[in-house]
Amino acid sequence: MNFICPITQMEMRRPVRNKVCGHTYEEEAIVEIIQSRKQRKKKVRCPKMGCSHDDVKRSDLVPDEALKRVIDSQNK
């Protein structure tokens, strides 16, 4: 299982899963990208290499509690 965020390249602490394409990111990193692109009225493409989803929205993101539990247990 991959615990590394495709945006920050660091281990995720608060992973969120995209309901549309299924990819997972660090919540703070993807929300920051969504907000900055929204101000410029631009769509956000999924940052996972090879993914064709090109309109990531805040409403598409859900906390990935299962992955968070696994990460937390690995770090104990």
From TrEMBL:
GO cellular component, one term: nucleus
Domain of life, source organism: Eukaryota
GO MF terms, alphabetically ordered: SUMO ligase activity; ubiquitin-protein transferase activity; zinc ion binding
Pfam families: zf-Nse
Listed pathway(s): Protein modification; protein sumoylation
One of the GO BP terms on file: double-strand break repair via homologous recombination
Keyword Zinc-finger among record annotations: yes
PROSITE patterns: ZF_SP_RING
InterPro entries xrefs: Nse2(Mms21) (IPR026846), Ubox_domain (IPR003613), Znf_MIZ (IPR004181), Znf_RING/FYVE/PHD (IPR013083)
SUPFAM superfamilies assigned: RING/U-box (SSF57850)
Presence of the UniProt keyword 4Fe-4S in the record: no
Keywords for the protein's UniProt record, in alphabetical order: Metal-binding, Nucleus, Transferase, Ubl conjugation pathway, Zinc, Zinc-finger
Location in the cell: Nucleus
Domain SP-RING-type residue range list: 1-76
PANTHER family according to UniProt: E3 SUMO-PROTEIN LIGASE NSE2
Family: Belongs to the NSE2 family.
Name of the featured protein: E3 SUMO-protein ligase NSE2
Lineage: Eukaryota, Metazoa, Chordata, Craniata, Vertebrata
Gene: LOC113991003
